[in-house]
Amino acid sequence: MVWAGVCYGQRTQVHFTDGILNVQRYRDQILRPIVVPFIHNHHLKMQHDNARPHVARICTQFLEAENIPVLAWPAYSPDMSPIERVWDALDRRIRQRVAVPVNIQQLPTAIKEEWTNIPQATINNLINSMRRRCVALCEANGCHTRY
Fold first, then answer.
1. 80 with 56: CB under 8 angstroms?
2. N vs C: which end of the chain shows fewer Cβ within 10 Å?
3. Residue 117: strand, helix, or coil
4. 68-77: per-residue pLDDT in tens?
């Protein structure tokens, strides 16, 4: 499993977790060591989708205890999240490499390299598009949008 976070002007390093990301692993391997310091250092509000580990009581209570504000997010709108578009860009970059990873051992190196090669301007543009995305979602009454 690969996890990373973005915000305007910044991004986290990419982090790898072996196996399925359950609630405890999300809290102990992602939230506590990565998210909490990043959000506090940059004075951010967290936005994540409604995946089970994200909305589980153990994680919501943890975030509350750490004074991490969380942006409410519509239940069925993963296409509205800027990180989903960043993952798409990362996937395209890896597939376009001259030396495409040929096995699972080569993949983490390629992911790390391409993650750092995504221009921050690309991420910033995706974040800037959020107002348009939200308006489109409202106009579509929460249904599918072109985004």
1. no
2. N
3. helix
4. 999 887 766 6
Q: pLDDT grade, residue 86 (50/70/90)?
A: very high
Share the mean pLDDT of the chain.
90
pLDDT of residue 80: 74
Which is nearest to 79 in space by CA: 87, 68, 67? 87
Residue 124 is encoded by which pair of tokens?
A: 């910033």
Domains in the chain, CATH or no CATH each: 2-139 (3.30.420.10)
Task: Read off the amino acid at residue 110.
Answer: A
How many other CB atoms are found less than 10 A from the CB of residue 5? 21
The pair of structure tokens assigned to 84 is 């989903």
Q: What angle do CA 42, 47, 49 make, to 5 degrees?
A: 155
Q: How confident is the model at residue 140 (pLDDT cuts 50, 70, 90)?
A: confident
CA distance 16 to 2: 5
